[in-house]
């Protein structure tokens, strides 16, 4: 099939769904950009560099709880969409039920475990530092953990919206939840200024939007509900087998982002953490541009794969690669030219490390481009082998940074991240092509069997 035919298929059958998804994810990226740009100066003006740096260290702890579903939520979403593509609504409901039960039980178990660990004197002393009361830190982390747990169930609810052909609506709820939790946290920071109030406000914002989302979904469909049974637990175990590799992605991301934050903080101090995170926050706008398209294509990639439509799948992939490469490069050029003006308007007095900033822009371009390929692997549950490469490169980036940082300073973080993203780009490109080639072979075998 020609490229023109591929583009025609894409535009005729999927343009409205893709555009609505792009719109929802554009809103999501605007939420991310807005909250990050606003929150950094407000935190700095109210707490100062040292206290804000300590808060960044504390807030890394709940991020690791996102690993608690062992990838079950993402695998469940893929399988629910695949069953829906084959008009298998009953099987889709079973997958949802199994994922919800598994996520709830395991989250409770890990929540208790984390509370026990952070309640020790050594952990409280490290996390509180000289900035916060030790008991307040424990209470704040509990609220942050609960916020993450509700977030996982919010994402699972969004999978049902996707099955109901309302992907965009579900994602709007997910992004609005983030908006509310950040704005309420900032309001608590300005009004009260203590760490517990900030954490509680963020948790309250997440719960509010999750409740509205659940009520809305009840009016759309009443078929997705919890019914504990032996078969549900068996289904959860089967999801765990598929989702085991998915845990590596948030783990790798946590190592790359939160891990790098901890390395910079432990070697160079909280002030360096604030500087590095400000630069990374701005440069990752490029990655967010790519995410707008790539995550909108996720459900369509899953359906195309399930229906053995190699031409459509390859067309979606190529168009995504082209758009992300061009848009991220142009955005990088803009951020380079107007860097001084942007940081001056955003943070006021800020000493910009030009070398680190330029390096992190290049890191973001590599990351955005690689995402177009590895999203194909994740959307089709062909991610297991790639996940190993992903976490190994994330670990390598932190090791490189930690080794070079005492010698050349914070720029070593950018060097480690750049080498990691280049390796991820090459490996994901190769593996995505292998998936699409195997899809064509699978369809040829199916055609021969039908003829015979």
UniProtKB/TrEMBL annotation:
Transmembrane segments: 21-43, 55-75, 95-118, 138-156, 177-201, 207-227, 263-279, 321-339, 359-379, 386-404, 410-429
InterPro entries, per database record: Poly_Biosynth_Transport (IPR050833)
Membrane topology: Multi-pass membrane protein
Alphabetical keyword list: Cell membrane, Membrane, Transmembrane, Transmembrane helix
Lineage: superkingdom: Bacteria
UniProt KW Transmembrane keyword: yes
Compartments in which it is found: Cell membrane
Keyword Cell membrane attached: yes
PANTHER family assigned to the protein according to its UniProt record, in alphabetical order: PSMA PROTEIN (PTHR30250:SF26), PST FAMILY PREDICTED COLANIC ACID TRANSPORTER (PTHR30250)
Name assigned to this protein: Lipopolysaccharide biosynthesis protein
Organism: Microbulbifer aestuariivivens
Upper lineage: Bacteria, Pseudomonadati, Pseudomonadota, Gammaproteobacteria, Cellvibrionales
